[in-house]
Amino acid sequence: MTAPALTWENDSNLKINDVEFYVAYTSEELHGINSTVDRFLLGKSRSMIEKVVAMLGGHTIGNVFEMGIFKGGSVVLYDQLFQPNKIVAVEFMPKPVQALAQYIAKHGNPDRIKPYYGVNQADRRTMQKILFSEFPNRDIDIIVDDASHLYEETREAFNIAFPFLKPGGHYVIEDWAWAHWSGDLWQKDNPHFGGKRALSNLLIELFMLAASRCDLIEEIFVNHNFIIVKRGVTALPQSDFDLGRHYLLRGKHFGAWL
Ligand SMILES: C[S@@+](CC[C@H](N)C(=O)[O-])C[C@H]1O[C@@H](n2cnc3c(N)ncnc32)[C@H](O)[C@@H]1O
User: Fold this and answer.
1) Model confidence over 14-35: pLDDT tens digits?
2) pTM for this prediction
3) Between 3.40.50.150, 3.40.640.10, 3.40.630.10, 3.30.70.1400, what CATH number should domain 46-245 receive?
């Protein structure tokens, strides 16, 4: 598939087909600006979007699952970029995003783009119910986790969702590196992440899994923004997968050191 053209007016204003995006990542902009049906707020940077497009843009994408809807911008981005058969997304906040509802109404079949609100990515029962009913063939092409960015929640979400990715599919975890970014906001008391375990603990586990079981993780791409895990070919249990049971560590226990 040929990826549609990304038209950048500047680093903040992006247009794909007939949809405009305001691209922002400062807290003020993210919380101060709302999406409208013609212009969605997208919580990313230009370079990050360009890198994801460069890596995944040429693939034929049937099914997408995303965690972290926020103001709907990323659901619409993936819809425009990949033109998939189905996008399912979950969000912790209970209130539906009006602009996204309007976009779904405008772009045809409501079964194609399905947001679920009030869902914690670490809630195994609810997440599995959604995944089993939406993707009974376990054939997701791309999973994107842009939700909590916390180690425990992100790890649990990986354990739940990874078995629903098809062999050769890609699992993206955004903003994994927050504990290592420079500046007081990240290196001193952060109101959200302060006192929490670094998400990079999960990367260490994923690297160990890739090393021990290349049939489960075929390869990993990593940069300072995101990690992309490519799924190997071996079938996984549907409901009780735990990555910690599959990597080898000379009999030692990994204790999330950071
Ligand atoms: C960084 S924002 C997502 C930005 C969006 N993907 C975009 O690119 O425009 C993170 C979102 O994840 C949601 N979130 C945080 N913790 C979550 C959890 N445990 N489960 C599901 N969603 C969560 C937040 O409410 C917030 O809307």
Assistant:
1) 999 999 999 998 989 999 999 9
2) 0.97
3) 3.40.50.150
